[in-house]
Structures are given as C-alpha cells and as structure tokens.
UniProtKB/TrEMBL annotation:
Pfam family, one: PRMT_C
Start and end residues of each Methyltransferase domain: 62-159
Protein arginine N-methyltransferase domain sequence ranges: 164-328
GO terms classed as biological process: methylation
GO CC term (a single one): nucleus
Keywords, in A-Z order: Methyltransferase, S-adenosyl-L-methionine, Transferase
Species this chain originates from: Lachancea fermentati (Zygosaccharomyces fermentati)
UniProt cross-references to InterPro entries, sorted A to Z: Arg_MeTrfase (IPR025799), Methyltransf_25 (IPR041698), PRMT_dom (IPR055135), SAM-dependent_MTases_sf (IPR029063)
Entry GO MF terms: histone methyltransferase activity; protein-arginine N-methyltransferase activity
Protein name: LAFE_0B11760g1_1
Amino acid sequence: MSKTEAKESATDKKNLNEFEQHYFNSYDHYGIHEEMLQDTVRTLSYRNAIVQNKDLFKDKVVLDVGCGTGILSMFAAKNGAKHVIGVDMSSIIEMAREIVELNGFSDKITLLRGKLEDVELPFPKVDIIISEWMGYFLLYESMLDTVLYARDRYLVEGGLIFPDKCSIHMAGIEDADYKDQKLNYWQNVYGFDYSPFIPLVKKEPLVDTVEHTAVNTTRQKLIEFDLNTISVKDLAFSCKFQLDAKNQDFINGLICWFDIEFPAPKGKKPVTFSTGAHAPYTHWKQTVFYLEDDLECEAGDVLEGTLTCAPNQRNNRDLDVKISYHFKASGVDANERSRKNENTYLMH
Ligand SMILES: C[S@@+](CC[C@H](N)C(=O)[O-])C[C@H]1O[C@@H](n2cnc3c(N)ncnc32)[C@H](O)[C@@H]1O
C-alpha cells in the first residue's frame, strides 16, 4: 500500500528488530485504522477534548505522536492550532498525506514518516502533544514510552499532553460457562486429547466484552498515571487489590479496564471516558484474567492480592502480568472455600 520508499522514512524498517517490524506492519493496513476511527467513544472524546479547549490550542504548535490517518492532527488544525506535526512509522501516513491535502490542511499540518525517536521536527519545541497510544489493558504495545520520550524531548515547560491522566481498574466476574468452554474444549478435539494446550490458554488474558451483570465484586482502581510526571520505569509496577464479593456466586476471573482523562482549565469538567464493562463499547473491550480456582463466594467474602505488571524481556511490547491472590471466605465452611494461589500471564 505504501507509496513511500524506505529511504523517505527517517527510520529504515530493515534496522528494526522483528517485533518492531511486526508492530509497525500491523498499522500499515487501513482496517485497524477503520476500527479505531469507528470507535466513537475514543475518537469523539479526542475531538471533544480539543473542541472544548479551543482556547488552549489557539496558535499553538502541536505534535501528534503516532498520527495514523491524521484524524487527531486535523482536529487540532481545525480548532486553532498554528501548526501540527504528525509523525508515524507505518505506511498509513501516506494515506494521511492524501487526506490532509484533500481536506485543505496541507499548509497547517506537516507529516513526517519514521519513528518519533528518529525524526527531526521542524520546530525545536511544541506546546501540546496529542496521542492515542493506549493498548489493551492500557499498557500493551508500550507506545506510552514514545509519548514520554516526546514529552521529555520536545514539550515546552508547562506544555499540555492530551490525554494526560489514566488509570487501570479491576473487578471480579462470574464467567463459568465461557471459561469452561475456553479451557475444556482442548480435552477432546475430534476425539483426541489436546490438553497440553490448556496451560497455554490459561496464561493468555482474554480481550473481550464482558456483560456488566457478570461483575460480582466491588471494583478497585489499581493504579493511576499522570503523564506530566511519570517516567518509563513507572510502567512496571506492582499493586495490591481488595475486592469484596457482592453475593453468593462464583468468581471465575478478574476483569481489568482503563479510564482516560484529558486536561481542562481550572473549574472546567475534563473530558473523560471509560473502557469498563459498565461503560459504552470501545474497541479495547475489557481484559479478562481467568483464575486458577473458581472461587465459591458469599456476600462479603474478600479477595485480596497483588497484581504485578512489567514489559516482557524478550519483546517489550508484550506484558508479563502476575496475579497472586488470597480468597478469604467467612462462615462455617470458610476453610473449605478459602484459596491462595498465583497465576502468571503473558499478553502478546
Ligand atoms: C493507536 S494508533 C493511533 C492512530 C491515530 N492517531 C488515531 O487516533 O486514529 C497508533 C499509531 O502510532 C504509530 N506509532 C507507534 N509508535 C510509534 C513511534 N515510536 N513512532 C512513530 N509512530 C508510532 C503506529 O504506527 C500507529 O499508526
């Protein structure tokens, strides 16, 4: 699809490792961009955040980190930015060039192909960074590293990042049928024992939509990130959780989702959106971590534990997640129902 030769990119794809090549190739095709554009919660949140902050964008130099089809660049240019620089490594940027020209923004938007870390911007500093960098479970893809790099290298003192706050949340779910289907399928595949697949399936978090009625515990914010102040090392973290069972049921897994917040002037309500099961659909859906045990719970029983998350050593765009838990049942059968365990997962 690309009309650009490798030499026109600030980064020569051949010099990237296989994981990086695969990552950027995945954004070459328009299909993934169509899915993102059609996610109206996502795309309209960015537009609303820019439109509601027109005063902040007026006459400002804006950097769009990972501009894709150029949608955020055009929102910024249309709403008063003096100049927007859109950067993307994937060949989709060639379509962005056509679209930006077609819509009359060629004089306001400069598009640069290459890794943000390698391109040379036409401005030494920018006033605002916009970026849609979020992956499944917020951090999958590790694109936030690039936004933090852009902040440290290019953002003026006191500059703004859209969005600038995000948080990861967790709750327990009843999902026995689907869990059983996912795991036990491998017990008998056309009459053959395929059970060696079961440990692999258990290790893989599931990205899917979860009915909010499946949530059967209290929910908890695990961690919050302020993009103005965090550094890459903060993206490897460990946090404790405590979830209280709401009724007599089974807790088969944990779901995680993230919330996003954009800057707003003092006294103004910020634009926010959530990717939780209680909120409208987004293409990020929710991330399900099935537990080793199916926890038989009564209202008030406590599931406490620790979630540890870090980029995978081999491919830092993948995530290693460890969840250790202690389910503390109460009542006469407390000992029989209580459980302690630890699960490790790889998001890839
Ligand atoms: C999630 S998409 C968002 C696209 C677009 N901003 C939108 O909102 O529709 C992220 C884009 O960032 C690009 N990207 C990721 N890391 C990058 C990097 N280090 N340098 C340049 N582009 C990058 C990807 O190629 C991809 O097109």
